[in-house]
Amino acid sequence: MPRKTSSEAGLVAARLALGVFFTFEGWDKLPWVMHPDQLASILTRWAEAGTPLSKWYVQTLCLPGVPVFARLVFFGEVLAGLCLIFGLWTRTTAVVLFLLVLNIHLAHNTLLHYSFLSKGDGLPVLGSLLALVIGGAKMPLSGRKRK
User: Fold this and answer.
1) pLDDT per residue over 100-136, tens digit each?
2) Pick from 2, 49, 94, 139: most CB atoms within 10 A?
3) Into how many domains does the chain fold?
4) b/e for 84-118, b at 16 or more Cβ within 10 A?
């Protein structure tokens, strides 16, 4: 069995931590599956307080698709979190989650704010996901066989 490097161990730790984070972030959104209006209410508040760009984004793209997006966010976050925990399709999952997080911060109008840099659900999550995209191939403790 090949020896694991500290960088591989670090990536596995990041993968597992992000997997748990997204699994529980998604699980919190379980009510959205039956009541997508809860997401619509959140998006409406974000649009009212947002910049013209985020307001346009929410009103034009997000609100019309709320019944679909509410379910996609729940299932996407939970399934992506589980994929990270079990090491399945790590790089692909990290790309999808990276885009999901960017999408949320664009809609919430936090992408270009100080809070994006200082809160745990912004830059640290994106940075960790990017690390998995770059170095996540053939990681140890993965559900996929290493060659």
Assistant:
1) 999 999 999 888 788 888 888 888 999 999 999 998 8
2) 94
3) 1
4) bbbbbbbeebbbbbbebbebbbbbbbbbeeeebee
**d(C-alpha 83, C-alpha 136), whole Å:** 12
The pTM of the full predicted model, rounded to 2 decimals, is 0.87
Question: What residues make up the domain containing 37?
Answer: 9-135
- Rounded Cα distance between 127 and 86, Å, is 20
Determine, yes or no, domain membership for 2: no
Total count of residues recorded for the chain = 147
In angstroms, how far is the first alpha carbon of the chain from the final one? 12
**Considering Cα of 80, then 85, then 88, then 94, what sign does the dihedral take?**
positive
